Amino acid sequence: MNKTELINQVAERAGLSKKDAEQALNAMLDTVSDALAQGDKVQLVGFGSFEIKARDARMGRNPKTKEPIEIPATKAPVFKAGKALKDRVAK
């Protein structure tokens, strides 16, 4: 399912116009993105949580030249599914 299909499903289930569903979805995604950028954790009870994980700097290897390179430390967003979501998908 892509974003357009998701918007169509949300509009249908919530009885909204596609334009309103798109605005709601974009507002939700922007809010989650902004919270993660500020270092906050976003928890949606029954669905899951979004948070930032820090990755330490490490040594890697250039596959072309086999030369060692340093990979810098980064922060990456992660999603952890909640119990209700896990249970629903497992059926």
Automatic annotation (TrEMBL):
Quote one Gene Ontology molecular function term.
Answer: identical protein binding
Q: Which residues form a coiled coil?
A: none
| SUPFAM superfamilies, A to Z | IHF-like DNA-binding proteins (SSF47729)
The record's InterPro entries line, in alphabetical order, gives:
Hist_DNA-bd, Histone-like_DNA-bd_CS, IHF-like_DNA-bd_dom_sf
Keyword set for this entry?
DNA condensation, DNA-binding
Q: Does the keyword DNA-binding apply?
A: yes
Q: Which domain of life is it from?
A: Bacteria
- Membrane-crossing ranges are none
Q: Which GO terms describe its biological process?
A: chromosome condensation; DNA replication initiation; gene expression
Keyword DNA-binding part of the UniProt annotation: yes
Q: Name one GO cellular component term.
A: cytosol
Q: Which Pfam families match?
A: Bac_DNA_binding
Database matches in PANTHER family:
DNA-BINDING PROTEIN HU, DNA-BINDING PROTEIN HU-BETA
**Family (UniProt):** Belongs to the bacterial histone-like protein family.
Protein name as catalogued:
HU family DNA-binding protein
Say which species the protein is native to. Answer: Candidatus Avoscillospira avicola
